[in-house]
Every structure is written in C-alpha cells, then in structure tokens.
Write a structure and sequence with these properties.
Number of helices: 12
Oligomer: single chain
Radius of gyration: 24 Å
Helix content: 10-25%
Largest sheet: 10 strands, antiparallel
Strand order of the largest sheet: 3-13-12-11-10-9-8-7-1-14
Shape: globular
Number of strands: 25
Mean pLDDT: 92
Length: 576
C-alpha cells in the first residue's frame, strides 16, 4: 500500500481474513443512488458525449448468498444506469461474485459483505476492476464503499486512473422468486470453472525460469497474466495465475475480474459463430455474402463473403494508399473518420457512416489484407440477419454454455427506441481468465469437448495450422503449419506476419527442433494477447498500455520471451 493514492484502502479489507466467521444469509435489493467518485489523477476528460465520467451510475443490485459466496442476481450482466438522472453517468456496471463473513469478536450483529464490480461503458470496451464492501443486518445495509483499482486499456477516456467513494443506498427485501434461480445459476457457474492455482504452484512443478513470462510488456502496464495447462498425462486442465498488482495491493478475486478484450473479440465472436454454423449447416456458410444480408451497402458487398470479412480482406476501406506490394495491412486503418464510426450509437448510424466513408478498393475481396473494424462489425450484422435472430444469443447458447461459460457481457449499439442493440463483433466482449481459457482450449481441441463436436473440426484444424492465412505484407496465403526455414525477409521477428479469422500468426523458429511454427495469437489493444501452443497450452496476458506515454509498445509486438518460456516448460511435438 506504500504510495497508494489517498482514499484507497487495502484490498485485503474487501475479503474475509483468516479469522473470519460465517455470516448470516442475505437476500436484498439495493438501490444505488448516483454518487460522485474521487479520482487519482483527476480526469482530464470528465465528460464524453454528454455523459459524466465522474459519477458512479444509479443502479439496482439484487444480492443473495450461497453459503459464504455473495451472488449478484445480475452476475455477469452489463447494468445500464437507472433512469432518469439529471446528469447521466458515463458508466455501466458488471457485478461479479463476492463473499460474506463476520469479524471475530464483533458483537454488533452486523455481517460483512464484499463483491467484485467492474466499471464499464456501453460505448467502449475497457473495464475498471473494482471492489465493493458494506455491512448488513437483515435487509438493513450501511457503509457502502467502492474502489476501482485496476483497468484495461482506455480509449475515449485517455488515461489510467483509480477511483473510490461511498454511495447512498436504499435496501428492501428481495422477491422470493429470484432467490433460488440465482443460487442455482451460481452453483452451475462455479462448478464449471477450471481449477485455479497460484503461479507459485506452476513454478514448483517446472524447472523453467518463468521470470520473462509476459514480456516485453512492462509490469506497470500489465493487468493480469496466466498460463493454461491442458488436460492429459493424468491431470486435469488448470489455470495458473499471477496476482494482479494494484496500488491497493493484490486484487483479491482474480477469477472475478472481467477485462475489456477489445480486438480479442475478433478472434472469438465471428470465428466461433462461423465454425459452429459450419458444423450445423456445412462449410458453405463461409461463402455467404455480406450484401445479401445487410441491405443498402455498396453493390460490391454482394461479392464480399463472410470469410472475407473475418479475414479483413473485404476489399473496402477507401482510405490509405493503393500500394499492395509491399502491403501495409494497417494502411488507412484509423482514417475515414474512425471515431465518428466508433462513437455512432445506433446500428443505423454506424451503417450510414460506413456508406459515407468506406469505399471499394480496386482489388477483389479475399486478396488483400487491410485491417478494418467495420468489416467484422458488418459480419456480425449479416450473421444476425442470416440466423434471423440475435447472433450473440446464438453464440452463448451454441458455444459458450456448452463449454461452461454462463455469462458473456458484450457491448451493443444503443438504439433510440430502446430495443436491444446489435452486438459488436469488432470489439466489446468482457471475458474473465476462465472464459478465455475455455475458449482457447476449445480451439486447441479442434472444437471438440467431451466427445461432442461443437465447431467444424477440419475448418478449426485448418485455422490453427494457419492454412490460408494471408500475409500482411504481400497477400500470399500460407499452405499450413510451417516450413524448415523462415520465408525470405521475415527473419526471426516476433511481430505476427499473417492473419486469418481474427487470429494473428506469430512466426517462431524453435531453437530445439529448428521447426518454424506459426502460433495462433489473439491480440487486443493495450497489448493483451492469448497465444495457443503446439503442446496444447495457452498463455494469457492482459495489458493496458494504449495511450500511456512511455508504456506503449509497437503495435502487435509479441515477445519471444513468453514463447520461449512456454516451450521450455512443455516441449512441443516435432511434427504437427
């Protein structure tokens, strides 16, 4: 806690200590009134699009207990501010599980409660990881305190900060009809989690020096790091996590932290939806076209296939140069009034912006890689129309729930009539470490879980092998897996050189086998990365470096230090 901003309390006060005693059950509805937060440093951009970022949003929070676990009925949901408010808050909330306890020797009759709370926004995809604590006796609640002590990468609010404060609350009894369903949902979610073990348990079982794991990102720009060990050799899959360091001490509920995944969403939403549809209906679904399902676009979208959009090869962009030899896959990426599209609240406004600013390039779809968020957003809209339903609901029911993910909050458009918005596919997902681990392990198993084929097996295998991945430099496609030596001009640089279905593929020449591997890599702004290895393992690093002077890495830098650590820990097969 040395050097922590005044107003933050030790995170250890937001969880039971070793001498804590069992608490009485709780079933309560809390009406949180809007409250002004304190910040360090002060916000340089206090309002965004007419909403005040200094205000904790007014919200309704329903809470029950499951033994010692504090369960929000709205667990894993994005809670918009309760209207009407004179000045709207910029923020929404995502509540996560917590704990209840009694303090030894406290005769007051008041029990303690604490939970994880994420401060998020419905126009963004960064998250502030926070904590709440209060005391309760029956349905009476007092001393509602909060602090937000860590965060993923900012964008519209262009700084890191911590925040804290107290909120006025009114409490009432929770309806009986909500209590048991909430407990049942919590049991199912908690029982489905992968085993979590501290990093020390991994260090004790491997002679490998793991001190470089997560590099080159500086510790002060790192939110969370973990290694996912797959099942096999008589052991179950497990997640080994490092403490998330904050100015108020380690975050006490690492399994509850939700992160702004940003472009990691591109490697999750569209590929999983397409691979599931391919398993149900056949691979032909990848050849359906955007123009058929999203009316009013440029006529050339009639040639843009679903697979072209998720490959970032739509042939649209309209900004940047026409130079393709060599190609710069980011050429013009943040042009075309990008922020105007990013902040356009409704689906109709995003489409209007796309029609105005994104123009066809002279090349055919599927031939040149140009990174555009709009491509993947339009694919999500097309898939919504294709299934004649909500594509995110489809993803939750058909992929997430079967692998044990029972809450998947994501950003959606804000529609003026109040109806449910279109899910973003370019960004927007707020996963936990457990969620990312399960998704990565599903890919690693080629879409199979417990004998059930969830994703199309051959297409998933081809994807992980980098077969058909487009070069960011010249548009050529890989034939799959690797070669005996690196292609001319690529050297041994760690920067991913190819792209397919949301994955960046990082070339790595193994010093042990001299075999070239193209490692499937999920990447998100802030230098968050999830790398899949031939051993079946997965490394996860959540970063927050975007916009911070002195901490920004070159775009898409992925260190060989992490890859080398993983290979030394679990040697890879010499052949695919």
């Amino acid at each position: 806690m040395s050097g922590a901003p005044h107003g933050l309390e030790d995170n250890a006060l937001f969880c039971p200590g070793q001498a804590a005693l069992p608490a009485l059950p709780l079933a309560v509805r809390l009406h949180l009134r809007q409250a002004r937060m304190s910040f360090a440093p002060a916000l340089a951009v206090p309002t965004v699009l007419g909403r005040d970022a200094r205000l904790l949003p007014a919200s309704v929070l329903d809470l029950v207990t499951l033994d010692s676990v504090l369960v929000p009925v709205q667990w894993g949901e994005m809670l918009a501010e309760t209207p009407p408010q004179t000045t709207p808050s910029y923020w929404s909330l995502i509540p996560q599980f917590g704990r209840v306890w009694c303090e030894l020797g406290d005769p007051s009759g008041w029990s303690r409660a604490a939970l994880s709370l994420m401060l998020v926004n419905d126009l963004e995809n960064h998250a502030h990881q926070g904590l709440v604590r209060f005391q309760y006796r029956g349905i009476e609640v007092r001393d509602f305190q909060f602090q937000f002590v860590q965060q993923t990468a900012p964008y519209l609010i262009k700084q890191h900060f911590v925040a804290w404060g107290r909120a006025p609350v009114e409490s009432s009894a929770l309806g009986l009809e909500l209590i048991e369903p909430a407990r049942a949902r919590a049991r199912r979610a908690l029982n489905s989690r992968l085993p979590f073990q501290p990093w020390s348990a991994l260090e004790e079982t491997t002679p490998t020096d793991l001190s470089r794991f997560g590099q080159p990102l500086a510790p002060e720009s790192t939110v969370s790091k973990a290694f996912v060990r797959p099942s096999g050799r008589g052991r179950d899959a497990a997640v080994f996590y490092q403490d998330s360091v904050t100015p108020a001490g380690p975050y006490p509920y690492p399994q509850e932290m939700r992160f702004g995944a940003r472009s990691i969403t591109k490697t999750i939403a569209a590929p999983l939806a397409l691979l599931r549809l391919a398993q149900i209906q056949g691979p032909e679904v990848l050849n359906q076209t955007i123009g058929r399902y999203v009316p009013g676009l440029d006529p050339k979208y009639a040639e843009v296939r679903f697979i072209d959009a998720t490959n970032m090869a739509s042939g649209f962009g309209g900004t940047g140069t026409l130079q393709t030899q060599p190609n710069d896959y980011e050429d013009g990426y943040l042009d075309a009034n990008y922020d105007g599209w990013y902040t356009a609240p409704s689906h109709a406004e995003k489409l209007a912006h796309t029609r105005k600013w994104l123009k066809p390039y002279p090349w055919k779809p599927g031939t040149v890689l140009r990174y555009r968020d709009e491509d993947v957003y339009l694919l999500g809209a097309a898939l919504n129309s294709y299934i004649q339903g909500d594509i995110w609901d489809f993803l939750c029911a058909e992929v997430f729930e079967p692998i044990g993910i029972y809450a998947a909050p994501t950003t959606r458009t804000r529609e003026p009539t109040g109806e449910r918005g279109m899910p973003w596919f370019n960004a927007g997902y707020f996963p936990t470490l457990d969620d990312l681990a399960k998704i990565a392990l599903l890919y690693q198993s080629h879409g199979e879980l417990n004998g059930v084929q969830i994703l199309h097996r051959q297409l998933t295998a081809d994807l992980l092998s980098a077969r058909g991945a487009l070069s960011k430099r010249d548009g050529t496609a890989l034939s799959g897996y690797g070669a005996d030596s690196l292609p001319p001009g690529e050297g041994t640089a760690a920067t991913p050189t190819h792209y397919r279905m949301g994955f960046h593929f990082t070339p790595y020449l193994s010093p042990r086998t001299r075999r070239l591997h193209y490692l499937p890599t999920m990447w998100g702004a802030g230098e968050s990365e999830v790398i899949l290895y031939p051993s079946g393992g997965v490394s996860i690093r959540i970063g927050k470096s975007v916009g911070m002077p002195g901490t920004v890495l070159p775009y898409n830098v992925i260190s060989h230090a992490t890859i080398e650590s993983v290979e030394q820990m679990e040697p890879w097969p010499e052949h695919p």
